[in-house]
Specification:
Length: 306
């Protein structure tokens, strides 16, 4: 059904927890009441977030709808986990520059710069293919983003030469891989069947390939994947410490900072929504807090004295 491997693993995990929670009874012998009890226990006893409870619900609905073919009736007795209204952590432009400068690996520094310069999510950046970087049009096509949607974002002019050099590295590496009898890459959905030659084409290679080969967890094929996201996460955390940034910083903070700074530059909320790939503008609206600089734009009386 073209679900990502992570989604598959998460769903299987939640289904196991659901079964174990009810004494290892078979799901066919359970139904609406047991599902409501399990979801409520997550919120009340385990104090999970609303997103986590929602993922558990999606997994169980998938089990009954797609596997057992016994759709559940409306669940109206579930105690919902509270969704806290938290503002995202955002860095100033100066902090972003300090962070990027503190990344000690050139490749990871390019990735971090690209995440901030485009607003891409971490995995969107790492899964970037050579064919989706359009130097002529100055844009990047983000394929299969959240919600399995494609979108277009800008290609920062200041990164063009570094990205060209990186593509040249990929071209040379790919040529060596082909010479060694390898060079194929994982393709999404049914493309591998429909276009078998695409797996070994330069255009489908990752812009940021991993240093070594790895085993595909589904097929068992030995291929070169993209850079591990944990490397980027560790690099960002270490760079933030070196740069003396005390606020919480992760690769996703770069996306928050991108959105905030684009709004500060005067671009409209709909443009930012499209660049970020948000389905609803209400999701993007959280970044407008920066336009009301502390205290909704009201100056402190301490600053009005004297």
């Amino acid at each position: 059904m073209h679900y990502s491997l992570r989604t598959e693993q998460a769903y299987v995990g939640w289904i196991k927890r659901y079964i174990i929670h009810h004494g290892r009874r078979h799901p066919k012998d359970m139904g609406k009441r047991e599902v409501e009890a399990f979801l409520t226990s997550l919120a009340v006893e385990r104090d999970v977030s609303a997103a986590t409870q929602g993922q558990a619900l999606s997994a169980i609905l998938f089990l009954y709808r797609e596997v057992l073919e016994e759709p559940l009736p409306w669940l109206d007795e579930v105690t919902r986990a509270k969704r806290p209204a938290r503002l995202p952590s955002v860095m100033s432009r100066e902090e972003v520059q300090r962070l990027i400068a503190a990344v000690d690996d050139p490749l990871l520094g390019l990735i971090v710069s690209l995440l901030y310069g485009t607003g891409m999510r971490l995995l969107e950046g790492l899964r970037l293919r050579v064919k989706d970087v359009d130097f002529g049009r100055g844009e990047i096509v983000v394929r299969e983003g959240k919600g399995d949607k494609d979108r277009v974002t800008m290609l920062p002019g200041s990164l063009i030469e570094r990205l060209r050099a990186q593509v040249s590295v990929v071209r040379a590496l790919h040529a060596a891989e082909l010479k060694a009898g390898r060079g194929d890459v994982w393709l999404p959905q049914a493309l591998a069947t429909k276009y078998p030659a695409a797996a070994t084409s330069l255009g489908w290679q990752y812009v940021f390939p991993a240093a070594g080969l790895s085993v595909d967890p589904r097929s068992g094929a030995v291929r070169r994947h993209h850079v591990d996201e944990k490397r980027v996460q560790r690099a960002v955390k270490a760079a933030a410490a070196r740069a003396g940034i005390v606020k919480p910083v992760s690769p996703h903070t770069l996306r928050h900072s991108f959105a905030t700074h684009v709004l500060e530059a005067g671009y409209d909320i709909r443009t930012v929504q499209e660049l970020l790939g948000h389905a609803e503008v209400s999701t993007t609206m959280i970044y407008t807090h920066v336009l009301n600089r502390g205290g909704r734009g009201v100056r402190s009386p301490l600053d009005l004295t004297g």
